[in-house]
Sequence to fold (237 residues):
Amino acid sequence: MTVHSTQPRVAIGSFRYPTESDAGVPGDAPGYPIPEEAKTVSGYIEGAIPGGGDSGDRHMLLIDLDRWLLYELYNARWNAGASRWEAGSGAIFDMSSNARRPEGWTSADAAGLAIFPGLVRYEEVYAGAPIRHAFRVTVTRTNGYVWPASHGAGSTAGAVPMGTRLRLKASVNLSGYSPALQRIFQAMKSYGLIVADNGGEMFVTGTMDSRWNNDELNPAFHGLHASDFEVIQLGWK
Fold:
């Protein structure tokens, strides 16, 4: 969701990982610019349950359009009994900077990366222009982390590390797909995927948008397999 600098910031009353979470912008009022209606209206938190509910990753992404700040929360929920917002972890990114999280820190993604830049966005898919960025992808198991990731969440021998960059092979034929799907899959050839979290095997995530046609998207994505990708860089520590 997008907000402006006038949106009041509210403190996160409890983080599960407080030593690796941002309480607020340094030198500014603590907290996150969460609109009041996020407590009672669906669509503000991943999972579409008002206030977040009690299941799923419950990511909440907020962009301050005036200050170019990206606020991201993992496992966000409104605890009505305690009258406070709670989260597993929280990260704030200055979108005018390419700075990473501190070494060893998580974010709202286990890799310590920002989620929003790696999402497939409806407006860019149907704008007609090429998509010019990589997408985030999850795999079921990982082994440590490499740059640009700052955090790991697994040690399975033989698994890829967080931060691995994959690319859809040039040999994959895209001619049978609609122009919109071709734009998505061409971006996977041009800019690739970055392993960002443990989760569903080879899951690429889009923004929460009621305009997506999953009857078109799901069969097309299921038609791709891990063997259609190549590792172009494992990164470095």
In short: The longest helix spans residues 179-190.
